[in-house]
Design a protein that fits this description.
The complex is a heterodimer of chains A (about 110) and B (about 110). Chain A has strands at about 5, 10-15, 20-25, 30-40, 40-50, 55, 65, 75-80, 85-95, 105, 110. In chain A, strands 2, 4, 5, 6, 9, 10 and 11 form a seven-stranded mixed beta sheet that branches. A four-stranded antiparallel beta sheet of chain A has the order 1-3-8-7, with no helix packed on it. Helix content of chain A is about 0%, strand content about 50%. Classes of the chains: A mainly beta (about 110), B mainly beta (about 110). The interface between A and B is medium-sized, with 25 and 23 residues.
């Protein structure tokens, strides 16, 4: 049981490039989400999904796309990277309902130059 | 709109002391409240989850309480150790989303 996995761990992009951050979970969780964490800003929700085929925007969705074709995978796509997207990105998953805890991946540290 | 506040932003105490971290939230309509720990450059580790119907949860030297009516939760750490040094975050689950506090950076001095 690997939990929540993210790849890559580190990435450097040039402005305007696109890329996909990968996230997978093996706990059969319905809920998955992407956060970014910036110094002094706390965690901010980018996008989330409550099941395969269902996604919705969080607090800071601009510049990012997501899809959820399977329960296990929830990739985050940066369409045209900007220096403002330099951040640490965390993927999380949870079952739905009151009692389920959120489990986080180890994060991807992204730098856009 | 739910807002979560953690006070203090930073705390430094000698080893062995008992300490309390605070988390307050503005809307009492929550599903649960979760405390996390984050070490520098690392991901988040779940410490305790309190359901909305519960008053407290305990795990080892950690005890978390929840008072929905006053919009407050506390994380009590007994007999602190240098290994407890980390940033502690609380998050409130409303609908499908977690609303986060900014965290308390805790330093335990040997």
């Amino acid at each position: 049981n690997a939990g929540v996995t993210q790849t890559p761990k580190f990435q450097v992009l040039k402005t305007g490039q696109s890329m996909t951050l990968q996230c997978a979970q093996d706990m059969n969780h319905e809920y998955m989400s992407w956060y970014r964490q910036d110094p002094g800003m706390g965690l901010r929700l980018i996008h989330y999904s409550v099941g395969a085929g269902i996604t919705d925007q969080g607090e800071v969705p601009n510049g990012y796309n997501v899809s959820r074709s399977t329960t296990e995978d929830f990739p985050l796509r940066l369409l045209s990277a900007a220096p403002s997207q330099t951040s640490v990105y965390f993927c999380a998953s949870a079952g739905t309902g009151e009692i389920y805890e959120q489990y986080f991946g180890p994060g991807t540290r992204l730098t856009v130059t | 709109k739910q807002e979560v506040t953690q006070i203090p932003a930073a705390l430094s105490v000698p080893e062995g002391e008992n300490l309390v971290l605070n988390c307050s939230f503005t809307d009492s309509a929550i599903y649960n409240l979760q405390w996390f720990r984050q070490d520098p450059g690392k991901g988040l580790t779940s410490l305790l989850l309190i359901q909305s119907s519960q008053r407290e949860q305990t795990s080892g030297r950690l005890n978390a309480s929840l008072d929905k009516s006053s919009g407050r939760s506390t994380l009590y750490i007994a007999a602190s150790q240098p290994g407890d040094s980390a940033t502690y975050l609380c998050a409130v689950k409303s609908n499908y989303q977690l609303i986060w506090g900014a965290g308390t950076k805790l330093i335990i001095k040997p």
